[in-house]
Design goal:
alpha+beta; five-stranded mixed β-sheet; single chain; globular
């Protein structure tokens, strides 16, 4: 009965030319996509049309503004390459990536919180326990160590721990591959029987996301800066557990309150221990200043 009524309203709203009145256009488009055989495709398509049309009705763009919007999306796609994903940057800077992350990782209270994956991950070389991943990066020595446990507090042996970060100037190794520098500031480790891992590297710094493209121009128009606060990436995985993708942010660092991709969570802010000389936890003799970053990670059981 409702379908008959709706069809009658649609027909009544159509002028002699067959065009739909703007008040009925949204329902007409939704009616077309209701025939999608996949229920999820149908749900997504209906929601997309409904919210996109609502956006247009709210802002009432001029035709020139709408063409500018299409040009912006076209330029975003043209900026994508094998080493740069401008659409990920767009998703990140509009807070969409973090929203998707939060929806998909509603984890138990004791599990380590997640954050955005970022565009600079690649499969990392494997290092032995205590190895140095700094490669051609230079800077203040940073000792990173920690443990991986489950929600019951039991150590997880053999978990893979991928770590990657920028150099002291805010660049990732991938951004310098054209210079022949090779990979640096990234590596994969495996936890021991007690769930522990440890390594050496150098301290990263805050950095701007690539802002020489459409997303950068958008940020400028919005009066926003392009910076991320200083952080180290972690991806920790093991059979039977949900893969954890997260960062550790430097306490007191700049941009913690205004991260351009909205990725900072209070539980992920950690203080660096500052040291001058002496003996590091792995027995290494230090001749100058160095830092330690320690954290215990908790993996959620795979549902």
């Amino acid at each position: 009965m409702m379908d008959v009524v709706r069809e009658g309203l649609l027909q009544a709203a159509q002028p002699a030319s067959g065009a739909l009145d703007e008040t009925m256009l949204t329902e007409a488009v939704i009616d077309r996509v209701r025939g999608a055989p996949d229920p999820r495709v149908r749900q997504i398509s209906e929601a997309l049309v409904r919210h996109l049309h609502a956006f247009i009705r709210e802002v009432e763009p001029t035709e020139d503004e709408w063409r500018a919007g299409i040009d912006f999306l076209t330029a975003t796609g043209q900026m994508c390459s094998a080493t740069r994903q401008e659409f990920i940057l767009l998703s990140d800077t509009l807070g969409v990536s973090m929203l998707v992350d939060q929806i998909n990782h509603r984890l138990p209270g004791v599990a380590t919180e997640t954050t955005v994956f970022g565009p600079f991950y690649v499969d990392a070389p494997v290092f032995r326990e205590g190895g140095d991943i700094s490669g051609h990066f230079t800077g203040l020595p940073l000792y990173i160590d920690g443990t991986v446990h489950n929600e019951a507090g039991e150590a997880i042996e053999g978990a893979s721990v991928d770590i990657w970060h920028s150099d002291e100037h805010g660049f990732y190794d991938l951004q310098k591959l054209s210079e022949g520098s090779g990979l640096a500031g990234r590596g994969r480790f495996f936890t021991g029987p007690d769930g522990s891992f440890r390594l050496w590297t150098v301290r990263p710094t805050a950095y701007p996301i690539p802002d020489d493209g459409p997303v950068g121009r958008m940020l400028s128009a919005q009066g926003r800066h392009p910076f991320r606060p200083e952080h180290v990436h972690f991806m920790i995985a093991n059979d039977g557990y949900r893969t954890l993708v997260t960062h550790l942010f430097a306490q007191g660092g700049q941009y913690l309150e205004s991260d351009v991709v909205f990725g900072v969570k209070k539980s992920l802010i950690r203080a660096y221990e500052e040291h001058e000389g002496g003996i590091a936890p792995d027995g290494r003799s230090m001749g100058g200043p160095w830092l330690r970053l320690n954290h215990d990670f908790v993996l959620a059981t795979q549902a």
